[in-house]
Amino acid sequence: MTDLSRMQGFADSAISALEGRFFRPPLPEGYVLRSRLCQRLDAGLSGRLLLVCAPAGFGKSSLAVEFCQGLPGQWQNVWLGLSARDGDPGRFLERLLAGLQQFFPQLGAQAMGLLKMRQRHQPFALEEWLEGLLDELAMHLMLSKPLLLVLDDYHLAQGPVLDRCLQFFLNHLPVGLVVMVTSRQRPDWHLARLRLSRQVLEIGEQDLRLTPAESIAVLDQPGRSLDSEALQSLIVRSEGWVAGLRFWLLAAAEAGDGNALPQALRGSEALIREYLLEEVIDCLPADVQAFLYDTACLERFCVELCDATRDSHDSEDMLRYLKAHQVFLVPLDEQGHWFRYHHLFSDLLRARQASGPQPTRLHLNACRWFSAKGLLDEAVEHALRAGHLDVAANLVQNLSEEQLLAEQNVGMLLRWKMDLPDDLLTSTPRLIVLYAWALGLACQLDAAEELASQLSRFLPAPSATAQKSMLAQWLALSGIIARGRGDSEKTERCCREALLTLPEKRYGQRLVCLSTLANLAIANGDLWRAKVLNRDALELAQRVANPLFEALAHYDRARALQARGEIIRAMEEVRQGQQRLKGLSSGRLYAVRARLTLYEGYLLTLRLQVDEGRALVLAGLAEARACRDISVLIGHCLIATMEGCAGRFAEAFAQLAEAERLMHIWDVPPIYYLGMLTLVKCELWLAQGRIDLAEAWLLRCGPGVSPAAAATR
Question: Model-level pTM?
Answer without folding.
Answer: 0.63
